[in-house]
Design brief:
It contains 12 helices and 21 strands. It is of the alpha+beta class.
């Protein structure tokens, strides 16, 4: 199974002879930088490039092309080399920035052709050279890391940043470009800017010779974060036509660091890779022509993608960015109007002549009128943007596949168990206070890189504090069951096994549909003995799969091992957990996602307070959700606090029961 990496993620390599595959939307030069433990190049000979393609252990292509494949023999790499950075650069005569072309994809494959790890370089903009991935030594073993570190000033800046002098870097880059050749013909037009920021100059991607570009969306790569406060989100996969509206100020060139240990968790909208080696992306459908003076008519799937699902996925992301930037422009205008009013009032009060007679009153009234006029103009522009987005939601929502759709979407009535895994799963909706009725689907990429924590405590938000304890806990468990049903329904039969720990049996009523349908791997585990047995079984699975991956022998797994993806639903943690069980749960949360074991925990953090800071890493490693409205998520561009609302089946609906019936039928058809 290919490990789909995101920026900053690493993966162990089970082979020492591997093939590097590059697929890009335009011809690129491919090279390899051999660095020391700090990634620095010893001399110009440490770079394999089209002019000098051979270095010990590998040989890179000698010309620019849209696809490359070359072998790396890690056993032949000199002992002084600790990192091998795979470098991509745009040749002369072609596009001048990666943001104008489809996102490149780099894979590390075994000699037999099986891909070990892959990385799609989304979020690039002004960069013309990038370190895509790096192979590196760690404690005697080799790993691959997704880097995505780009440079707006091209290959000279990249080389200088990795230890070469400015002169050597410029000379070496010139030789590489001269040997690799140029792309014939004129450079293609620049891509349309993304979202409501069309027309705004993008921030610099990096300083000339030292600072790498920011992570997708202008924010640094996400770090493990707390589950208590707002969440920055990632960037769109492809550009899209902006909603008409004002141009907000561009994001700062040096944004604040990513989430700190007490900051928000990170949601990634970057989509998993799709097979892009055999066909180009499908063109987006064309909207019907608008009448003179009318806004463009929205159409479902108007983003670029290799399938309709991917186009819809990218379109949802674009809608999210458009709303974030439009509201940002409105809030900036309103804040400016208020600050100008304060300055004008202060000036009026500071002038003794204004305080006497009616001139002061007139100045104050004029200042307030100017404030009201500016806010009114900004609101009119926002309302125009909101109307366009509402129209887009109205055509996109009915077109969403089941994995992306709300439970009230009619697509669920005709849904059948698919043959392929989905791009992403819908967890709920997001909205802003300026327009609470405009909901943007919140999608999370699959395979999930982090577990989920559904907070059933009463201290997380104002809505939770006002809720009664029993209904809140029931809603949290119903939410977990709905997520489990969706997960099973949108994956091929047998792809997932679901385990439940309900030590006190308090979630029995919510779990009843799963039990009746017979879709659980085993009855819900109860008591401390059930907790111990379930955690031991899943911990053993993680250990065995990790050892098999490291040894490069997945066929040697025990025959009794369930090789399907695993979902563990834990209710009312830490009830029934001793210290050993807590340690095992933390292990599953940290190591499980990489080998197909995913955690969905329903818990109140306050109830685990007896463990003190011991469990802080566990809470931070999970994506916190709430069964009641909670504004704990944030976007990556301006940091709005978005209100999350969970997705529940409509009252009285049988949609969950129908989905479970189809899941059970499909499992019986496969003898599961």
């Amino acid at each position: 199974m290919t490990a789909e990496l995101v920026r900053g993620q690493n993966h162990p390599l089970s082979r020492h002879r591997v093939e590097i595959r590059v697929s890009a939307g335009t011809p690129v030069l491919a090279g390899a930088a051999l660095g020391d433990d700090g990634g620095r190049l010893a001399d110009p000979g440490s770079l394999a490039h089209p002019g000098e393609p051979r270095v010990p252990g590998l040989e890179v292509p000698v010309a620019a092309a849209a696809r490359h494949a070359f072998e790396v023999d890690l056993d032949a790499v000199p002992a002084v080399v600790h990192r091998i950075g795979i470098v991509l650069a745009l040749p002369q005569g072609g596009p001048t920035r990666f943001g104008a072309v489809a996102a490149p994809y780099v894979a590390v494959a075994a000699p037999d052709g099986a891909e070990l790890a892959g990385y799609t370089l989304t979020g690039l903009d002004a960069e013309s050279a990038v370190i895509a991935v790096e192979l590196y030594r760690r404690q005697g073993a080799w790993k691959v890391r997704a880097v995505g570190q780009g440079y707006a000033d091209g290959l000279p800046a990249l080389l200088a940043d990795h230890g070469l002098s400015v002169r050597d870097a410029a000379d070496l880059a010139a030789r590489a470009h001269a040997a690799g050749g140029a792309v014939p013909g004129p450079a293609p037009a620049t891509a349309v800017p993304t979202g409501a920021a069309a027309g705004a100059a993008p921030p610099a991607a990096g300083s000339p010779y030292s600072t790498p570009s920011a992570a997708p969306g202008g924010a640094p790569a996400p770090a493990p974060a707390s589950s208590d406060t707002p969440t920055p989100l990632a960037t769109p996969v492809v550009p899209r036509t902006p909603v008409p509206g004002p141009v907000p100020p561009p994001p700062p060139a040096d944004p604040a660091p990513g989430p700190d240990p007490e900051g928000p968790p990170t949601i990634s909208y970057a989509h998993p890779r799709r097979d892009r080696t055999t066909e180009p992306p499908q063109p987006a459908p064309q909207a019907p022509p608008a009448q003179p003076g009318e806004a463009p008519r929205p159409v479902a799937g108007d983003a670029t993608g290799w399938s309709m699902d991917e186009r819809l996925y990218n379109q949802v992301w674009g809608m999210f960015e458009d709303l974030a930037r439009s509201v940002s422009a409105y809030r900036s205008a309103a804040d400016f109007a208020e600050s100008r009013l304060e300055r004008e009032l202060d000036a009026a009060l500071a002038d003794p002549r204004s305080r006497l007679g009616g001139s002061g009153d007139g100045a104050r009234e004029s200042a307030r009128a100017r404030r009201d006029e500016l806010v009114s103009q900004a609101r009119a522009v926002l309302d125009r943007d909101l109307a366009q987005l509402k129209a887009e939601v109205e055509v996109v929502e009915p077109a969403l596949p089941a994995a992306f759709a709300g439970w009230a979407n009619p697509v669920w009535h005709a849904h059948r168990i698919p043959a392929e895994a989905p791009l992403a799963l819908r967890l709920g909706d997001l909205h802003l206070p300026e327009c609470p009725e405009l909901r943007i689907p919140m999608l999370v990429r699959f395979p999930m890189e982090r577990g989920l924590w559904i907070d059933n405590g009463r201290t997380g938000s104002e809505a939770a504090m006002m809720a009664d304890t029993a209904p809140l806990r029931r809603a949290a468990m119903d939410m977990a069951v709905a997520h489990a049903v969706r997960l099973l329904a949108v994956h091929p039969a047998g792809r997932f096994s679901v385990h439940v720990i309900d030590a006190a049996g308090a979630g029995a009523s919510s779990l009843a549909p799963l039990v009746r349908a017979g879709v659980l791997a085993a009855p819900p585990a109860a008591g401390s003995a059930g907790v111990t047995e379930t955690l031991a079984r899943l911990t053993r699975r993680v250990d065995l799969v990790q050892m098999a991956v490291r040894a490069g022998a997945p066929e040697d797994l025990p025959p009794d091992l369930d090789t399907a993806e695993q979902l563990l639903v834990v209710h009312d943690f830490p009830h029934g957990f001793d210290d050993r069980a807590v340690t095992q749960l933390r292990y599953l949360a940290d190591e499980g996602p990489a080998v197909g074991v995913h955690l969905l925990m329903v818990a109140d953090r306050d109830e685990a307070s007896a463990y003190g800071p011991l469990l802080d890493p566990l809470w931070r490693s999970l994506m916190r959700l709430s069964p009641v409205p909670d504004d704990h998520l944030a976007d990556p561009w301006v940091g709005h606090a978005w209100t999350f609302e969970a997705s529940f089946p409509p009252p009285g609906s049988r949609v969950l029961d129908q989905a479970l019936e189809r899941i059970a039928e499909a499992r019986r058809g496969r003898g599961i």
